[in-house]
Amino acid sequence: MTIIAIAIFVITLVLVIWQPRGLGIGWSALGGAGLALITTVVSLGDIPTVWDIVGNATFAFVGIVLISLILDESGLFEWAALHVTRWGCGNGRLLFVMVILLGAVISALFANDGAALILTPIVIQILIALKFSARASLGFVLACGFVADAGSLPLVISNLVNIVSADYFGIDFARYAIVMVPVGIVTVAASLGVLYLAFRRSIPRRYDPAAAPDPRSAIHDPLTFTAGFWVLGVLLIGYFVADPLHIPLSVITAVGALALILIAARRPAFLFTRATPLGSNGDATVRAVSEDSSATVGLRRISVRRVVREAPWQIVLFSIGMYLVVYGLRNQGLTDRLAGVFAGIGQNGVLVTALGVGVIVAVLASIMNNLPTVLIAALAIGAAGATGLTHEAMIYANVIGSDLGPKITPIGSLATLLWLHVLDRRGIHIGWGRYFRTGILLTVPVLLISLSALAGWLLIIG
C-alpha cells in the first residue's frame, strides 16, 4: 500500500505540472484524489479532516488574489512601478534596488503569485520604454521573480504556504508577524545583496526617467484605485483582530474582495471629478467624467466579470485533491519517517534545527512542489514530539524552506511555471537549465541567511 500511495502522489504531481489537454491543476489533483480513494489509500472520512486543514487557507488565498486583480485593473501596481521609475532619479542601479523593494512590498501585502505575475509584465513594459537592453532587462525580470517568493515571508497572507502552516499549528496573525517580519526583512536584504552581486554588471548606470509615462496615466479607475488604499488599511486591522474574535482569515479577505468588486462594478463606471492641467501656466480645470466620456481621458471600465472568472478557482479543487493525496502518504506512515528525522535534528539546538529542517524542506519543495511539501512537513513536525523553541523553529523553518526552496527549480511552484510561460509569450525565454543554475546561485545563500536569522530571533524573543 505504501508503494501505491507514493505512485499516486508522483502521478498526481506530474499531471498537475504537465496539465495535459488543459486539464488544469484542480482537475489533475482531483484525479489523484479519486485514485487514492479507489485504492483505499485514503477514506471518505479523511475528506473533512483535510478540508479542515486547508479550506480556510484556500479561500483566504482566493480572496487575496481577487483583491490583487481588481487593484491591478484599476492601475495601482503600474502607478507604483512608474513612481519607482521616477524615484530612481536616472540611476540604473538605484532603480534595480527600488524595483526589488517594490516587489517585496507587493509580495508581502498581495501574496507572492500577485507580485510575480502582475509586477513582471509591468516592469517589462517600463524597461522597453526606457530602452534597456535585453541583457539588462533579464536581470530585472529574474529579480522580480525571485523577490516575489523571498518577500513572501513576513505576513500570514503573503503566501498560501504561510496560511496553511499557520492554520495547521494554530498560529495567530500577530504572533506570526512578530516572528517573521524581522526575518522577512533580513531575507529581503539578503536577496537584494545577492541579486545585486549577480546582475550588477548588466544594469545600465544611467537612464532617462522622462522616457517612462506619467504615473497618473496608469490610473484607469480612480475611485477603485483610491478605495484600494482604504480597503488594504481595513484588511490589515482585520487580520490582527480576526483571531481574538475567532473569525476565519478567509472571511476577512472575502469582505475586502467583495467591497472592491462592488466599487469596481458600480454604474456609471466613472462617476468622479478629475483635475486636468492645461497649458504651461499651471491652471487647471475640473472635468466631470462619466462612462460615456471615459475614452477621452484614457479611462476604462473594469470588467468585474472577467476578473472574477480569472480568479484562481482551480486552487480550491487543487487543495482538496492534492492534500488528500498527501494525507494518503501520512496514512501509510511516510510522514512518520520524516518526523523521526526532524526529531533527531531537534536534539541539537535551535540553530541546527532551523537549518536542518529548513534545508530538507527546501530540497523537497524544489523537487515535488512547495504546496504538498508544506503539509507533508507540517504533518511530520506535528508527529516529531518537539516542544518550546525547537518546535517553533521547525514550524517557521518549514515556512521558509517552502517559500524559498521552490526558486531552485522551475517545478518548485506552480507560480514559477506560469511566470516562465508569461515571459516566453513576451519573447523572453529562460531555459530550465539556465533557470536551475541561477536558482541555486540565488537561493542557497539567502535560504541559509534566513534560517540563521530565524534561529537568532527566536532565541531573542523566547
From TrEMBL:
Under the heading Pfam families, the entry gives: ArsB
Per the record, membrane topology reads: Multi-pass membrane protein
User: Which terms does the record give in the GO molecular function aspect?
Assistant: antimonite secondary active transmembrane transporter activity; arsenite secondary active transmembrane transporter activity
Ranges annotated as spanning the membrane = 52-71, 92-110, 116-133, 140-161, 173-199, 223-241, 247-265, 311-329, 349-367, 374-398, 435-460
Sorted keywords for this record are:
Arsenical resistance, Cell membrane, Membrane, Transmembrane, Transmembrane helix
What biological-process GO terms show up in the record?
response to arsenic-containing substance
Compartment(s) where it occurs, according to its Swiss-Prot or TrEMBL record: Cell membrane
Q: What sections of the sequence does the record tag as coiled-coil?
A: none
InterPro entries linked: Arsenical_pump_ArsB (IPR000802)
GO cellular component annotations of the record: plasma membrane
UniProt lists the family membership as follows: Belongs to the ArsB family.
Q: Which PANTHER family match?
A: TRANSPORTER ARSB-RELATED (PTHR43302:SF5)
| Name of protein | Arsenic transporter
Q: Which organism is it from?
A: Mycetocola tolaasinivorans
